[in-house]
Amino acid sequence: MFNLEKIPGIDALRTPCYVYDMGLLDSTINALRDSSVKYGINVNYALKANSEPEILRKIASYGFGADCVSGNEVSRAIECGFPKSGVFYAGVGKTDREIVQALECGSPFFVVESLQELEVLSSIACSRAAEINVLLRINPEIDAHTHKFITTGTSANKFGISVNDLDAALNLLGRLPGLRMQGLHSHIGSQITGMEFFSAQCERMNLFIEKVRSAGFECSMVSLGGGLGVDYDCPDTHPAPDFDGWFSAIDSSLNRTPGMKVFVEPGRSLVAQCGTLLSRVLFVKHNPARNFLVLDAGMNNLMRPALYGARHSIENLSASGRGESGFEKYDVVGPVCESSDVFAGDCSLPVSLRGDIVAIRSAGAYGATMSSRYNLKDLAETLYV
Question: How far apart are CA 147 and CA 310, in angstroms?
């Protein structure tokens, strides 16, 4: 249960509001850092999960690098204290302007996702008399059995260079000026809880590393992306994910040679549980077929449920203080004029009243970063506790 005592003056709090538990974030980062040190694996935080400056400054203070997927993310990462030498710029559709922006910010590593991107990077590098460090993102053809919208490692996905094009990519690297091959990258999806998928990813990467070296290139860096899942159903039971299990699977499956640097790019697993979206009940509607709790937060504040049917634990914080024992099933919905603006259907909650404060848990990842002003709604307030 979300602890209301952390928020003085809760009754006067303007909702909707994202509340970030910085103590929980600290303990999660420490758990990640301990596993990182134990297994000798480097960490680049994925900004797309949460790019709030205070969150970024906290994560950067631990010495991690940054995984960015836009020119503006590169700029923000450096502004918030991530070292320029630790910034990786990925993304399947980098514009020329963003490439130049990242170079001017000092981003040293570009994760390349297509053959044509190699040609564009070479052209820009030559025009600036620069050398660009590249990692080839290879699509490993692994289905991690997550939701189809967060699967990234099969040929049906837009990400990465096809296995069939690896030889062509290496051939291009051998003749294009201005590019320096550093290693390989892969990513197989998001919200993955089965460690066997990460082991399979590493076994495929071993084959790709051999091919790269056989072609006469060094492979001094290997990035395995992110994807480690969190417990959305029981956030208090598992506030931190199994970093040790993730890193152990990598360590036992990847053929690491002396001097090779191995990277992972956690995003969701680091910040999801520290964030809660607080909202107020605007109306309670009793229709013949359904009961509705209409909240002041909507899909414009938290897109995940509408985008791919994601489920979050939902708590009525006000009802718990009334001592009532009765429960009802509600469709918990937002105010946005879309039928998809639903946080949960048939959600069992204590009998709820207008003005009750509701907590939507595990909202620290892909919540605020996906927010919009659709219907000209205000963005949610932000509070750090």
Answer: 9
Q: Would you give the DSSP letter of residue 228? A: B
> Could you read off the pLDDT of 266-316 as tens digits, one per residue?
999 999 999 999 999 999 999 988 999 999 999 999 999 999 999 999 999
Cβ atoms of 137 and 186 closer than 8 Å? yes
Tell me the domains of the chain and their CATH numbers: 4-17+274-384 (2.40.37.10), 22-270 (3.20.20.10)
Name the residue among 121, 117, 219, 225 with its Cα closest to residue 168.
117
Longest dimension (CA), the chain: 73
Tokens found for residue 95? 């514009």
The 3-state secondary structure of 141-198 reads CCCCCCCHHHECCCCCCCCCECHHHHHHHHHHHHHCCCEEEEEEECCCECCECCHHHH
**Tokens representing 276?**
């809660």
Cα gap 28→127, rounded to integer Å: 43
Are 277 and 301 in contact by the 8 Å Cβ rule? The answer is yes
d(CA 224, CA 230): 18
Cα(216)–Cα(132) distance, integer angstroms:
19
Residue 220 neighbours by CB distance under 10 Å = 12
**3-state secondary structure at position 385:** coil
Q: pTM for the complete prediction? A: 0.93
Residue 45 CB partners (closer than 8 Å, separation 6+): 56, 59, 60, 64, 65, 66, 67, 82, 265, 266, 267, 270
